[in-house]
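Protein entry
_____________
===
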Amino acid sequence: MSAAPGHNHRDNRILAALPDGMLSTMERDLRQVVLAPGTTIFEPGDPVEQIYFPQSGIISLLVVTAHGGTVEISTIGREGALGLHRALGERRSFTRAIAQVAGYFSIITAARFERIINDNQSVHDLILRYTELLWAEAQQTAACNAVHDASSRLCRWLLQTSDRLESDMLPLTQEFLSQMLGVRRTTLTLLAQALQTKGAIRYTRGKIKIVDRAALETSACECYRVIRQDTLPPRIGVSL
């Protein structure tokens, strides 16, 4: 599938970081698709057979409990890729991966990607570096979920999503947010109302606009600053 106007494979920073000749070879096998919000990409235990490179959307990684509950441990935007570690050998997914925010995604079969990069050490180093950063974010998020209150976690989450989208307008419903944070919908509604009263955000059906970023940062837990510094520089993405 050819790239849509205004979108191309190089919008993803992993793909853009590949050697020109390698990406040119890969473009014959890359497909571009649009995923709707909530689309399930992987379930826990699924073999990783395709690699997803977000161009404009965001992927959420969720731990699923035995009773069907979920909590988000990491997100992937245009700075990264879902299933990238599959290029180092056969892998299975440990989480449920869903499209958190709709957008364009470049997709290639994992087996083909593995053959193209072959034994290129610089690309292997790139994959290992990104995998380490994603793991670091998951560790920080797990700690955040365990020790910080829902209000500060919500602020952290909104700021992270804004950074990855490079926009202050977030297409998110309260129902979706409650699932990502692992809180009741009624609790999320009260938290969002409090932030709106404070003037930090403005909420309309299906959309949240960050109005006062400084106020949101003040209310966020320190995990936002740690994750931003170590894994996601603001408005830019992972430094690879």
